[in-house]
Amino acid sequence: AGTTTMIGGGTGPTSGSLETGCTPGPLNLQRMLRAAEGLPMNLGFVGKGNASRPEPLTQQLAAGAIGLALHEDWGSTPAAIDNCLTLAEVTDTQVLLHADTLHESGFFTDTLAALCGRTVQVLPDAGAPDAPRWAGVDHVLAGSATGLHATGAAAGARGTTRAAVALLHELGAIGIVGSGAPAPGSGIVVRAWQMAHAMKILRGTLPGDSARADNLRVKRYLAKFTINPALAWGIAHEVGSIEVGKWADLVLWRPAYFGVRPSLVLKGGVVAAAPMVDAALPGPRSAAPLFAGCGRLAPAASLSFVSRSALDAGIGERLGLARRLAAAGGARTLHRRDMVHNAYTPHVEIDERSGAVRADGRLLVCEGAVDALPLTQRYALF
């Protein structure tokens, strides 16, 4: 769907990778950096942040991790959170937190206290039923990894909180849309525009937009999968927007297929993918890989993002990488107000009995239903 940069982790479809989305240990990180050499995609690999001491985390950052991920499956205890964030402050790296779902090691207030005001990325749609409260914390960069919420909320076990997440997106309190791939929720671009469509149907025109155009809504949802995740991971100096001096990654669309089928994808200024004609089909097929992923050009057309400590230590030369490396940094000082078009920080309250969610006193509920979504099967017949 036109994605040119991915931040995440894993070592393949193993149980740990599928559940936690991180690449544990220096050896695995080095292997993944080598594997990325021929891929026409900017990549940053996230190391395992759950540890009781800083040494294992330091080793992973030195091995090329862009940041660290704390996941409840490994135990997101207050001690593990504090240990990881303490090191992140020293190394200027970002931390992604999947908080405790079952309250085994603490409640929301315990996890919040462990942060001690330090910046972190958190998923308000994952974890305990009170997870949407993260959208009301200024030093938390809230992001969603479950695709479209509002239209499927009624079928969920926690319909009120899941619907609230979509509404928090609409209000600009959640500034990032991710995939969680290979877990459910892939198709970032399509899901973002489907959510925007659902919110337009359910809530009408945003304040500041006109009856003829949805410019503010478009910019808000566009920023969720472009500049805001780039800012959150400390790589906005290289990618995330079209500006002079940034990496020439461009996705071109025919208006009729905007958001679902790119007409041309450029990586580093080189054609990476485009629909190609097949005489056996009545129209262009899905985008085929082209020159940005071929031969000796592949390492030159894309970036691998690593920590500053790994870059300064010469990780590229040590591993024999031909691919250009870029250091992530600057994310430790970010707050919600730095999220482009998504800077709203409400006071979020959740009723423990009913699950009702309120933002600044307003009940967050989706009234009505969306009968049909755009960008679905008819765009993928061939």
Task: Please give the CATH architecture.
Answer: Alpha-Beta Barrel
Helical/strand content category:
alpha/beta
Number of strands: 16
The count of domains is: 1
- Outline the biggest β-sheet: 9 strands, parallel
Cα-based radius of gyration, to the nearest Å: 21 Å
The CATH superfamily bears the name: Metal-dependent hydrolases
Q: Poorly predicted ranges (pLDDT <50, ≥5 residues)?
A: 147-157
Q: What's the order of the H and E elements?
A: EHHEHEHEHEEHEHHHEEEEHEHHEEEE
What would you call the shape?
A: globular
Percent helix: 25-40%
Range of strand content: 15-25%
How many individual helices? 12
Mean pLDDT comes to 90
The name of the CATH topology is TIM Barrel
CATH class: Alpha Beta
Distance between the termini: 15 Å
Written overview of the protein:
The structure is a single chain. By secondary structure, the protein is an alpha/beta fold. It has one domain (5-241, 333-363): Metal-dependent hydrolases (TIM Barrel, Alpha-Beta Barrel), CATH 3.20.20. It has twelve helices and 16 strands. It has helices at residues 15-20, 26-35, 55-62, 78-91, 108-115, 159-171, 188-203, 215-224, 227-232, 298-301, 308-312, 315-319; strands at 5-8, 42-48, 67-70, 94-97, 120-122, 140-144, 176-177, 250-252, 264-267, 270-275, 287-289, 303-306, 324-327, 348-350, 357-359, 362-363. The strands form three sheets. Strands 1, 2, 3, 4, 5, 6, 7, 12 and 13 form a nine-stranded parallel sheet that branches. Strands 8-9-10-11 form a four-stranded antiparallel sheet, with no helix packed on it. A three-stranded antiparallel sheet has the order 14-15-16, covered by helices on one side. Helix 4 packs parallel to helix 5 (108-115). It is globular, with a radius of gyration of 21 Å. The two termini are 15 Å apart.
